[in-house]
Amino acid sequence: MAILNLFKNRRADEKAERASFGALLDGYSIEVMPRTAAKIDNFREFLPAGMRVYIAHIDGTPIEDMVATAKRLTEDGYAVMPHVPARLIRDKATLEDWISRYVNDAGVTQALLLAGGLNVPRGDLESSLQLLETGLFGRYGFKRLHIAGHPEGNRDIDKDGTTRLVDRALKFKQAYSENSDAEMAIVTQFAFDAGSITRWVERIADAGVTLPIHLGVAGPTKLQTLIKFAISCGIGPSLSVLQRRAMDLSKLLVPYEPDEFLTEIANYKATHPQSLIDEIHVFPLGGIRASADWVNERVLKGKVASQ
């Protein structure tokens, strides 16, 4: 009888874990680039209706392609959020031109404000804080503005390896949000070390940040691809997680899937219900359809487990 009860308890725990895991992923967001969007005939075949879809603005992508992709996704019924990278924008006039195109041509009222990946800005703007300070997003009626979060720091900003400047910028943006009509949230870079994420979440909360966090997660892909992106994006503690995985030949030969990482995050959320972690944002490094199918399957399993 004791063994039977132990088995039943274990099954109940596993069911609860699946439900918690699925609930964490439910309502996720994802991103796409114009050149990859052009290869997809119908997003509605695999992206849930009404979900938030970010459009990554990579250096060299014409604004016309960004706006056309935004218009298409808006017409498909998605909440479209293009990246606005400050360092790609020559001046305030160019920024206003981009914003007016998004609003008037594509019906967009959301944006992710970023510094951008360039080491040297193309013009007068170099930070997301400067984008906010122009006041243009408020003037054009943007209802939602997201900003970047860096749980493991950002060497492009804090070259000394600390988090001093990114922390200070986050406090400024928190203050801005308190005087803005737009809903704001923090979208983080993807990571693989749950401990570094939860420590950062608690640290910024203790510093007075109340903005909800949309936690970045890498979708399923080859381990070699992940390591390449992790190095280029300056991932810190998470890179060591991938390196340890690469030493395990049994894991090296199969695609990476973020189940273990997200299970840790879901368990943390279950024991810290007031945590700032609010949603999951998926970086589809292995392809948008593969990532969406992976998430959708786990959301469905979670819903079944919760019944």
Automatic annotation (TrEMBL):
Molecular function terms, GO-annotated: methylenetetrahydrofolate reductase [NAD(P)H] activity
Gene3D superfamilies found in the cross-reference section: 3.20.20.220
Protein name per Swiss-Prot or TrEMBL: Methylenetetrahydrofolate reductase (NADPH)
Entry's EC annotation: 1.5.1.20
Keyword annotations: Oxidoreductase
Organism (species): Aliirhizobium cellulosilyticum
